[in-house]
Design brief:
Radius of gyration: 21 Å
Number of domains: 2
Bound molecules: uridine-diphosphate-N-acetylglucosamine
CATH topology of the largest domain: UDP-n-acetylglucosamine1-carboxyvinyl-transferase, Chain
Strand content: 15-25%
Number of strands: 24
């Protein structure tokens, strides 16, 4: 398994370009299932989850060309026939977002077999709300041998009120409803920018959708959808991670090619902590020269502070004076980075859903272990200010969602390198966030 070796202490300076949003690219690739024509996507990030989705679609009979060379960051997908509408456990277990194919498969083929995702590193992540919504649309769903089997001649429009806000649940049912018979009205929907991005692609494919990006989405089902071309929005979580990298290292860093409006909760909090954020067009420049002052965060659905930025913010809070309370409201058990940060010298206490960080503490290098995607990012951030050389193990978690993070950081002055294992072991488990 690859490791990162990172020597802390260098203020980051320069410009980092942001890649396309993984969490938008994944549902957009799944949307290709809805038509036999070609879907061409641009600004696809070169991360492991995308390769996993390529494998998933290909295993069902889709033709997927994932661009390399000149066509880098592009994909062309054609689901002319889906000979095998099954999402196998071997693939689903490595990427929870695989459940995004459930709705499109039933809508297009009238049947789907999708392996149930198990528990995972950041708490149980059920898909009961996907199932409930599809049942309301007339799907018959049974469960056996760890698989969900869903059947419906043609889905029919329904009124769905989500018991809880779910991002991929909103996306899954929105895709299913595009080909349903009649109107679907969905309430209490996720308002994340990735939902709106998917709706933009679906609309380009001929779907009739109103209200994406608000909590009420109305979809008029159509008989068929056609091919389309779409550019994926920039990754707001990657951008937020690099903003904190600039801030924590006491640097002067510009994050370019992002959508600042998607990052308001993060930039406001950074300013509260004492980091200067200047927004100009699609760039955000962060500068942190003086002292940082601790501030509380509480994760919420968009437009609140994202749970996917909680671990990274906690690394920053260890470098701020005073007490910062970090409350995680979206996922249970999303504090696995805490014990590793503590091993580096942080003063953090967890009580239920709240972690109390007391700063500022000097961090010192240690051998640490990445446990999930965003937790790994927080360890990289902590290592940027730690004294000495930090070794971060299991960086395959980071590769799931960050494109060449070590190259991007090295480009702005970080002393980070990747080393491979002399005796590579099988990469195991899971896919959080
Ligand atoms: C998506 C993001 C992930 C982010 C998360 C919350 C993708 C691919 N992943 O994950 O990066 O951390 O949103 O912003 O877009 N829940 C249920 N039943 C369900 C579905 C969800 O109880 O059927 C619960 C979950 O356990 C969790 C909460 O709802 O507590 C939110 O989960 P959800 O928004 O569905 O997360 P994902 O879509 O999996």
């Amino acid at each position: 398994m690859d490791k990162f070796i990172l020597r802390g202490g260098n203020p980051l300076q320069g410009t980092i370009r942001i890649s396309g949003a993984k969490n938008s690219a994944l549902p957009c690739m799944a949307a290709a299932i809805l038509t036999e024509e070609e879907i061409a996507l641009e600004n696809i990030p070169d991360v492991r989850d995308i390769e996993t989705e390529r494998k998933l679609l290909a295993s069902m009979g889709a033709e997927v060309e994932l661009g390399y060379g000149r066509a880098h960051h592009r994909t062309r997908i054609r689901c002319a026939s889906l000979s095998d509408p099954v999402a196998r456990y071997e693939i689903v277990k490595t990427m929870r977002a695989s459940s995004l194919v459930l709705g499109p498969l039933i809508a297009r083929t009238g049947m789907a077999r999708v392996a149930m995702p198990g528990g995972c590193a950041i708490g149980g992540r059920p898909i009961d709300l996907h199932i409930k919504g599809l049942q309301a649309m007339g799907a018959e769903i049974t469960q056996a041998h760890g698989y969900l089997e869903a059947r419906a001649k043609r889905l029919k429009g329904a009124e769905i009120v989500f018991d809880k806000i779910t991002v991929t649940g909103t996306e899954d049912l929105m895709m299913a409803a595009t080909l349903a018979d009649g109107e679907t009205l969905m309430e209490n929907c996720a308002r994340e920018p990735e939902v709106s991005d998917l709706a933009a692609l679906l609309t380009a494919m001929g779907a009739k959708i109103e209200g994406a990006g608000t909590s009420t989405i109305r979809i008029q089902g159509v008989e068929r959808l056609h091919g389309a071309r779409h550019r994926i929005i920039p990754d707001r979580i990657e951008a937020g991670t690099f903003l904190i990298a600039g801030a924590i290292s006491g640097g002067d860093l510009t994050v370019a090619g992002c959508k600042p409006a998607h990052l308001t909760a993060v930039t406001r909090k950074l300013e509260e902590v004492g980091v200067r954020c200047e927004i100009a067009g699609d760039t955000i420049r962060v500068r942190s020269e003086g002292k940082l002052q601790g501030a509380d965060i509480s994760t919420e659905e968009y437009p609140g502070f994202p749970t996917d930025m909680q671990a990274q913010y906690m690394a920053l809070a260890t470098q701020a004076d005073g007490v910062s309370q970090v409350t995680e409201n979206i996922f249970e058990n999303r504090f696995m980075h805490v014990q590793e940060l503590v091993r580096m010298g942080a003063n953090i206490r967890v009580d239920g859903r709240t972690a109390t960080v007391r700063g500022k503490t000097e961090l010192s290098s240690a051998a640490v272990m990445a446990s999930d995607l965003r937790a790994s990012a927080s360890l990289v951030l902590a290592a940027l200010v730690a004294q000495g050389e930090t070794i971060i193990d299991r960086v395959y978690h980071i590769d799931r969602g960050y494109e060449r993070i070590e190259d991007k950081l090295r480009g702005v002055g970080a002393k980070i390198r990747r080393i491979g294992d002399v005796f590579p072991q099988k990469q195991t488990d899971e896919g959080a966030a």
